[in-house]
C-alpha cells in the first residue's frame, strides 16, 4: 500500500492575502465614489463591496479619504505601468517642448481612462466644497506632480532655454491649468493636439516673433 504523503501544514501566505484584500479595497473605493459620489461612500460600503471586514480597513487607514488617496496613487501607477511609463516622472531629453508635450499627452491618456475619469471627477468635485478634502487632494495628489514640472522648468532655465527671471511655479500653470479646467468643466475636448498647442503657446507666447 503506497505511503501517503503528510498533509501540507505550511502556514497561509498572509502577505499574499493582505495584498489581495488591499487590491479589493482599492477597487471597491474607486468604484463606489464613481457610482454614488464621495459623501455617500462609506467605510462600511467599501468593506462590503471588497468582501472584507471594516476592521481590516481601519487597520490600514484612518478614513475613507485616506483609502481613496492611496487608491488614486495606485491607479496612477498602474496606468503608467500599462503604458510602459515610469509614474510621476517628466523626461529630460534636452528638448523642453518635446518633454512637456510627452508628459501632457500621458496626462490626456490618464484623464480619458475610464478607470480614472469617474472617480477622479467625483473626488475633485467634492474637494471644491469640502475644504479639508480639497487641501488633502492638492497636497497628496497634485502638488508632487506639479513639483516635477517646476524641477523640469528650472533645469531648462539652467540650460538657458527659459529666461532666468521666470517663476516656474507660475509658468507651469500656462499649460496645466487650462487642461484641468477644460476637463473638469467639459468646455471642450482634450486631445494630444490640444495639449501640444498649450505647450507651444506657453513657450512661445502670442506676440509676433
Automatic annotation (TrEMBL):
Cite the HTH tetR-type domain residue spans from the record.
Answer: 19-79
- Is the Disulfide bond keyword given for this protein? no
List every stretch annotated Disordered. Answer: 1-21
Pfam families membership: TetR_C_11 (PF16859), TetR_N (PF00440)
Q: Does the keyword Repeat apply?
A: no
Q: Which SUPFAM superfamilies match?
A: Homeodomain-like, Tetracyclin repressor-like, C-terminal domain
**What UniProt keywords are attached to this protein's entry?**
DNA-binding, Transcription, Transcription regulation
Known DNA-binding region: 42-61
UniProt xrefs under InterPro entries: Homeodomain-like_sf, HTH-type_TetR-like_transc_reg, HTH_TetR, Tet_transcr_reg_TetR-rel_C_sf, TetR_C
Q: Which superkingdom, per the lineage?
A: Bacteria
Q: Name one GO molecular function term.
A: transcription cis-regulatory region binding
Spell out where the chain crosses the membrane. none
Q: Spell out the PANTHER family in the cross-references.
A: HTH-TYPE TRANSCRIPTIONAL REGULATOR RUTR, TETR-FAMILY TRANSCRIPTIONAL REGULATOR
Record protein name field: TetR family transcriptional regulator
Recorded source organism is Streptomyces dysideae
Amino acid at each position: 500500500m503506497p505511503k501517503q504523503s503528510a498533509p501540507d501544514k505550511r502556514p497561509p501566505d498572509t502577505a499574499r492575502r493582505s495584498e489581495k484584500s488591499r487590491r479589493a479595497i482599492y477597487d471597491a473605493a474607486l468604484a463606489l465614489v464613481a457610482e454614488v459620489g464621495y459623501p455617500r461612500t462609506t467605510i462600511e460600503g467599501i468593506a462590503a463591496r471588497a468582501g472584507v471586514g471594516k476592521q481590516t480597513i481601519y487597520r490600514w487607514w484612518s478614513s475613507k479619504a485616506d483609502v481613496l488617496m492611496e487608491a488614486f496613487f495606485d491607479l496612477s501607477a498602474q496606468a503608467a505601468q500599462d503604458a510602459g511609463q515610469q509614474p510621476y516622472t517628466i523626461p529630460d531629453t534636452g528638448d523642453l517642448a518635446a518633454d512637456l508635450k510627452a508628459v501632457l499627452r500621458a496626462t490626456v491618456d490618464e484623464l480619458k481612462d475610464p478607470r480614472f475619469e469617474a472617480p477622479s471627477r467625483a473626488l475633485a468635485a467634492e474637494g471644491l466644497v469640502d475644504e479639508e478634502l480639497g487641501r488633502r487632494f492638492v497636497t497628496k495628489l497634485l502638488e508632487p506632480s506639479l513639483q516635477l514640472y517646476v524641477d523640469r522648468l528650472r533645469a531648462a532655465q539652467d540650460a538657458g532655454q527659459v529666461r532666468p527671471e521666470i517663476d516656474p511655479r507660475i509658468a507651469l500653470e500656462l499649460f496645466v491649468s487650462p487642461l484641468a479646467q477644460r476637463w473638469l468643466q467639459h468646455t471642450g475636448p482634450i486631445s494630444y493636439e490640444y495639449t501640444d498647442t498649450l505647450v507651444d503657446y506657453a513657450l512661445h507666447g502670442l506676440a509676433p516673433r
